[in-house]
Specification:
about 170 residues; alpha+beta; about 40% helix; 7 strands; three-stranded antiparallel β-sheet
């Protein structure tokens, strides 16, 4: 048996197959006993239940007359798995799927560095042999840290005693 039921909380309509003690709305998650759900139709035919639900949804959208012109719900054109593939959607929108994928691989919102700015400056002092200020700035810049921050970070590290500077060469202590 199939039933077209409605949710009193969010007005969602859906199909239920069989009879369970309780039902849960797939949209809002409200749970009620099956007997307390508003049942618009109970039938043995799944296609008939789908047809009634589709008609109700069309009427809600003000498209009842358009829906009435369709001979049967079963006659509607179906897309495989009920969805359009991402590639088809992008092409229909006038976008090149390969370019979209490449753009996703280089998300500009994500930093190109790994670690905090301070840890990158400290890593430069550890990784570089006899690093000068210019070397540290270049190292940090390659990892997305701007030169102004790098200079200030070097000054703070020296002032706090975590690094030293002698004749233009820095080292961590």
């Amino acid at each position: 048996m199939y039933a077209v039921v409605g949710c009193s909380s969010c007005s969602h309509l859906w199909l239920i197959e069989g009879r369970s003690k309780t039902t849960q709305c797939p949209r809002c998650g409200s749970r009620k006993p099956y007997e307390k759900r508003k049942k618009f139709l109970e039938t043995e035919d799944a296609d008939h239940a789908r047809e009634v639900r589709a008609s109700m949804l069309a009427n809600r959208q003000g498209e009842g007359e358009t829906f009435a012109r369709v001979d049967s719900f079963a006659d509607l054109e179906w897309v495989e798995d009920g969805v359009v593939s991402e590639e088809e959607y992008l092409e229909a929108s006038g976008l090149d799927p390969d370019e979209v994928e490449a753009a996703g691989d280089r998300d500009p919102r994500q930093p190109t560095r790994t670690g905090s700015k301070k840890s990158i400056v400290e890593a430069a002092l550890e990784d570089l042999e006899s690093p000068t200020e210019a070397d540290v700035i270049a190292y940090a810049n390659d990892r997305g840290v701007d030169a102004g921050y790098t200079k200030k970070a070097l000054e703070k590290l020296v002032r706090s005693g975590q690094a030293s500077e002698s004749r233009g060469v820095y080292r961590l202590l």
